[in-house]
Amino acid sequence: MKRMVDIVVAVALLVLTAPLWIVSAVLVKATSPGPTLYKAKRVGRGGRPFEMYKFRTMRQNLDGVNRRVTEPDDPRITPAGQLLRRSRLDEIPQLLNIVKGEMSLIGPRPEDVDIVRRHYTDWHRRSLEVRPGVACFSEIRWYPDLTYHDPPPDGTPMQEWYVDRHLDAQVSESIRYVEQRSMWIDLTIVVRLAWLTLRYGFADPPVVAFEPVDAPHRVEAPDRSPDPSPDPSHVTPSAMSAAKGGPR
After folding, report:
1. Where are the domains of the chain?
2. Best CA proximity match to 100, nearest among 37, 175, 41, 44
3. pTM of the model
């Protein structure tokens, strides 16, 4: 039932948003050189990697392995990118991911392949039991994102702050969705996210107090570059756990 709803809604939205595709593409091409779409490497249901589509909002070739997480006022974001991110128009291409069966309208937040490989444990992998979603619990709890509500101290790299402090909280919300998912929950997330986008898309929402999640024991994989030619069909548990180090 959920898959059928995803397909019908995604196809309908693809038709209805066709003019927005044209406007967004023109904005991207007019404000920075490079492709219109950005293909982000994410991990989907069952640990399978896929390319998540977005309208490109950053200058290209600046997303190194340690810069996968966007900073507040990130200088890589183009002027058009700011507009697309604020309005969430940059996520419209993910409708294609839904039609392809890689994503759902609602589901856990899709995570970067390298972060999954280096930091996920068995507890984190529970969030990979369903298709990732365009919208999720964490987005309505900490709109527009956790970085806004809990920015890093001066001098702390954004990705390091995210992995140390935000990753477990994001995954905790994803697991909550996996355990509680229903059509009613999906509808609630859609309505609340639409309201938050309309109300705060171009205004600053009130800051919500954030407390790190006391997640089960998490281990650190060695700091290494990702496999340049990973298995394209599956991110295995062993690959995601990697070699175990000391507790964080």
Report:
1. 2-241
2. 44
3. 0.84
